[in-house]
Amino acid sequence: MAAPPTVPPEPGRLDRSAAVKSRIRASARVLFGRDGFEATGIRDIAADADVNPALVIRHFGSKEQLFIETVGADASWGDVLDGPLDQLGTRAVRAILDGHRHGHRAFGAIVRASGRPDIHATLRNSIATQLSGPLEAALPGPDAALRAHLFCAQFIGLMVALSVYDDDYLATAPAESVVELYGGALQLTLSHPTPVSLRPRHDGVAAARGIDG
């Protein structure tokens, strides 16, 4: 017996469904960013979006998945790689400061929620696919992977200072000074294709400095 033909949903129902999902995403983005993952419940998001809580689960499956699809999607850093490699350090720092100034809280929310395996995996994957992987491919030299990962560690460190433990001194410091100093440090990490190596300590300080005798 042939299966009955599939009847597509009415266009009006599709439009309403898309509008509901959009409202849920917008509310989730604001509440997760402001209050964090743990303090934000499905009912809070539903109330803010003016929908039934059951619709949140129907469209997104779980609070974790909604978080990943909204806040996780906002944590995009790949754009900092667009541009000359010799200006990446200052460009990256300026992007962090601009995001903080405009209230972008995605990264802080993700770090605070990263004890959950799915969210932790999302954070690791986004760093690898958007930053360390492409940067490693773009850098010359045999130690490209090391320099790419060190760059990411420094890059993320500044975001942690601003978005996780709220360093007020850095947040109010002159932006151009932060860009010059920290951006220069980031660029220095990228600019040395060969790591400095010292002879074993028992060769003496003179040998470590490359002095004969």
From TrEMBL:
**Domain HTH tetR-type, first and last residues per copy:** 18-78
Keywords assigned: DNA-binding
- A Pfam family annotated for this chain is TetR_N
Q: Does the keyword DNA-binding apply?
A: yes
PROSITE patterns hit by this protein: HTH_TETR_2 (PS50977)
For this protein, the DNA-binding region equals 41-60
Give one GO term, molecular function aspect.
transcription cis-regulatory region binding
Q: Which PANTHER family match?
A: HTH-TYPE TRANSCRIPTIONAL REGULATOR RUTR, TRANSCRIPTIONAL REGULATORY PROTEIN
- This protein is called TetR family transcriptional regulator
Q: Which organism is it from?
A: Modestobacter roseus
